[in-house]
Amino acid sequence: MNTDPNLLWSPTDPNLLWAPTAARAEQSDVAAFLRMLDRTRGLRFADYAELWRWSTTEPNAFWAAVWEYYGLDAVSAYDTVLDDPRMPGARWFPGARINFAERCLARTPDERTALIEVSESGPPVETSWRQLRRDVGALAASLRAMGVQPGDCVAGFLPNTAEAVVALLAAAAVGAVWTVCSPEFGTAGVTARLRQAEPKVLVAADGYRYAGKEFDRRSAVAEILDELPTVRHLIAVDHLTGSWAGTGTGSGGPGRAGVAWHSWSDAVADEAELRFADVPFDHPLWILWSSGTTGPPKGMVQGHGGIVVELLKALGLGADVRPDDRCLFHTSTAWMLWNFMVGCLLHGATLVLYDGSPTHPDVNGVWRVAEVSRATMVGVGASYLTAGESADAHPASAYDLSGVRSVLQTGSSLPDSTWRWVYDRVADDVWLQSICGGTDVCSVLAGGSALLPVRVGRIQCPALGVALAAWDRDGRPVEDRQGELVVTAPLPSMPLYFLGDPDGERYRSSYFDTYPGVWRHGDWISVADDLSVVVAGRSDATLNRLGVRMGSAELYAVVEALPEIADSLVVGVESPDGTYSMPLFVVPASGADVDDRLKARVAGAIKQRLSPRHVPDAIVPVAAVPRTLTGKKLEVPVKRILQGAPVAEVRAEGTISHPEMLAWFADFAAGTGSPEPGSPEPGSPESGSPESG
């Protein structure tokens, strides 16, 4: 724990892990924002809570101040801030014209480093801002030559590399709509998404590297092209050295006839003026996708202006990203965290792009990348940190992490012991930012503030501008106890619309059916008097035993603290006859047996540490827990299978790890049983990758 005598908080609280010094708080972006509010508007706030309340009760004033603080008033005027506050359908900054790519590339000195690519082997490769601008300009010109116009779609099938960043920015510069799938996706998962987007151009890598192995995906590219009749051009990225070498522009490439083939090197060969489409605030920027585990994946369209102002605010006033930061987020292009990371360019920061396994060559793989890239901010998933704790890893003794000032953690809730492990084994003076947000807004709903302390098990605060609350099922606010996470006022980055949803019915039913006019996010949270937040799991996977509701994350924290348990999944299953069952599925740690003795230990731990009412009806060993590619456990799909839904209705081909387990759960539900299935090779397209940060 930080014991600096200049702390703004007394270190006597045993749950206090970190607090900013007065000097560190004063140097933060949010402190500079407060000074601007005082200087230009005469507004003064006693603490973060006052600032947050103003930001949510006076949205026009707050977002106008954000616009001014980040210099957007010099970019475009606007008619009003919020023309219509209704949800869905709120209209932000009508009259403004803004281009995401232009804002990302606007203001940083040419010779500074914009991108650092790190692989599992080999030295880091740096790209300057000058080179990034040059490559974006060249690719944008090539896209225009291919007939791409504003509103057309450009799609990617790419790992987390410089080409993916360049392609996104080039598409945005043209005014095209960008979307991307990671190459570890199975072809069915890719085509289920991209068919909806109807891309004109596909930018595809020949494969990717993971855990010391190369995965050739050229045949998958051919299959994808066969399923995408709208694609007229393929830009082929030779990521696996030499695999597409010798196949020149216009020659017979992979896939169906009628697709013009271009190599990446040719597409960026000719220098061209970097031009940006002059688009309105709500012009579509990109399509992000839901996990697709409870039906066809939803294509969520977000706009240039909404993403610009939201990520300026979230990454600046929240995460405190600065121009001298080097931001390493272990993620794949399949997760919104990748888009969120690219937003760091809006602040002039350097992106560290890692294409590989987080546990290669060992569990400290991400920390190795942090050392070689000299990262100052490291973004990871909860499961990566818990894996380090379970392995008794000591990253700080293995690598020089002295430059890391912040660790950003997301994906799922973090066990209390893992919070302490970060400060014991990673860095004792690091700012651990646990964040809760989602693909739906491509941002943070609750997260960090450089003005507040970090305490075990608690997200620091609701994000500025986010009118977050916990509500009961009747729509009444609840204080310091669990309720539905709701947002009662619109945010600029909420989706403009869903693909294939012309009347908005699917959009409304996804967020607004439960509380009309209020966004229901689907998380089960509590908000304390000091505004700190605890996320207890997905509200649609809440355990409701004998009238006592509890988030699944609370049970996992107890069960997975046992050394014999490597992973677990719990679901509460309501049956048509009115009965309720709650099985717990556990993955035993290496060498452990799920015998009667261990089952008794698990049940006893739940009874003593959690609730006697939430002792499971059965404790069942399984080979693996299926997850989305972003690491979320498939609680709702498994629940539906146990209630009798066919696997085909809930399975999202190519987008989950261990898809074979869904058939196992169907056999379990039918009472037929089956042998514990084997596990596909980690990182293969059939298994998906582990949590991507």
Automatic annotation (TrEMBL):
Domain AMP-dependent synthetase/ligase: 103-490
KW Phosphoprotein (keyword) present: no
Source taxon at top rank: Bacteria
Ranges of compositional bias, category Low complexity: 684-693
Family matches, as PROSITE patterns: AMP_BINDING
InterPro entries for the chain: Acac_CoA_synth, AMP-bd_C, AMP-bd_C_sf, AMP-binding_CS, AMP-dep_synth/lig_dom, ANL_N_sf
All residue ranges annotated as the AMP-binding enzyme C-terminal domain in the record: 557-632
Region Disordered, annotated ranges: 667-693
EC number(s) from the headed UniProt entry: 6.2.1.16
Single GO MF annotation: acetoacetate-CoA ligase activity
SUPFAM superfamilies xrefs: Acetyl-CoA synthetase-like
Keyword terms of this UniProt record: ATP-binding, Ligase, Nucleotide-binding
Pfam family, one: AMP-binding
Annotated family: Belongs to the ATP-dependent AMP-binding enzyme family.
Name of protein: Acetoacetate--CoA ligase
Species of provenance: Streptomyces luteolus
